[in-house]
Predict the 3D structure of the following.
Amino acid sequence: MSRSSRIPQPELRGITLAQLRNVRREIDLRCKVEEWTREYGGSETIYLRPEEVNLYDLNAHLIIPQTQADQCSYVELIASGPQPPDWFVSHWWGEPVHDFLKCLEQHAFDRNLGSDTSYWVCAYANNQHNLEEEVGDPDLRRSSFYRAMGSAKGVVSIVDKNSIVFSRVWCTFEISIALRNLAHEGRDLDLDHASAATATASASDGKELEIDKEAGSSRSDATKKSQTDPERPRCLYDIYTHSGDGRYSVGLTDGVVAADMYPRKNDGSLDTDAQTFESNFNGMQTIRQANFPQELCEKGLSICLETAEASVEMDRKKILNFVSGNINAQEDDEPPETHASYTYINNLLRSKFAIAAYRRRLEEGKDVENVRNALSEAPIEDLQLSFHGTRQFKEEAPLFTKSLPTSLKRIDLKFTMQLFKTSAEFAKGFGRLQRLESFKLNCSTCTLTSCTDLWEEIAKLGKLRDLDLNFSYNQYMSSIDGLGKAIVELGELRFLKLNFSQCSNITSIEELLNGIVMFQRGKYDTSLRLLDLNFKSSGLSEESRKRFIEGLCSATIPFKPTRIHLNFEPEFQLQSVTNIDDLNKALRSSRCPCEECVVS
């Protein structure tokens, strides 16, 4: 077999999912026929079965022999030209190739990626006959690993059943780069990541969502733009593993993915034409990730990357010096035993496992203190978590809220079907999140009577731009007074979405109206871009609804929303057509150019 192409840049030697499946077929066809073996300590030789073959075996029996004549990488042997990677894969060579591929197949399914999706895998991308040229440069920024990560849109770690991947120093290097870029939403790999890490260490219902089908995730979560390249999405980081019993593969993903959004067709594929609702995504992600093996989550909560090992001691020193920011260290320089960068990366990685394990641990009646502690120390900016119907969460809720890290900028929480009586049972602590810009909270179908404490906590969130609260089907709630006062304090607010549908005891929303009007006429030179209020089947009288419409009309001179949607009752359209027309005329007469304002 001769070389198909020459690809001088190793970072462009991705291998597609289809090509990886061909490798699996090669293993199945040749392993037994050619009697592939593995030696243990030079004293014992075993004959391999196809499902036992790992990358050490494959390198010895297939990659090196087939590339020997051309002295090239395996990708150059099978590709017709450069294959820029979509994803960089961090993994341990001792993982069986069959399990490795099952993880990537599940990753591709979850993100709705095709068989032409390209993964950068070092065994296939690097020229195994000339590794010194590919990875031997003392400056790790010139290594093939580093350059490949700069080309990929994300990194996926494949975790073996014993989590050995997190104890290998090259994997430590890869994960540190991925997590640094993830946290800082930048793709400039020449940033002083140690300084950035140190600084950081100190420091809804019915909504249709536009989907980035190429990335396989929602635009709201997956395409936050890079600070160094505004047109390029930030680096994504996923973790996948294959269950110990071999039944399934599962991943911890960076945000919700296509598999959380779409139903399956009869053939097992995702129905990407189906209508999707953002309010369901969070819960589906939580349920999917709860299948991640709990024993691996437990190990993940105690990850300590600075203790990682290497076959070559010089590699260990070089990589840990790089991670700690000492990129100009000499080969023999000992890396620091402790460093802010180590702490930062460990805490960020542990939080992935904490978030995945939290709900399941509660439901199984297990202690969650170490999970809660890992979450509290996480330098994360995004959190999506659902405790839908988890009865054990009622007692855990106040501890959970107080453990939320102050680094958070965006949270999406689902506390649905809980037996809360007042928001005092879960709200205390939200006001600490002074960096919060987006707050989505779903408390639908609870037994709440009052949310005064929540309104007081929300009023403290001065940087909030997006507030989305769903309290539908809280039939015991009789008043939302205090929410309007809180809104007045949110000087940066641009998007306001409130759902109190089916709250049949709410009879007045004048305080909310006064808050919206005062916000628009208040001390802040700002204006809402979206106002979405749903009081369908609430206890509002026709007179209350009319007063609200009239009051909102009086605020339209400074009121310049991109879109306004009010949902009261179907019959309200028929009985109060004049008021609706008056409101639409007032909105159109404002300086809003889009003419998309709607009342229904």
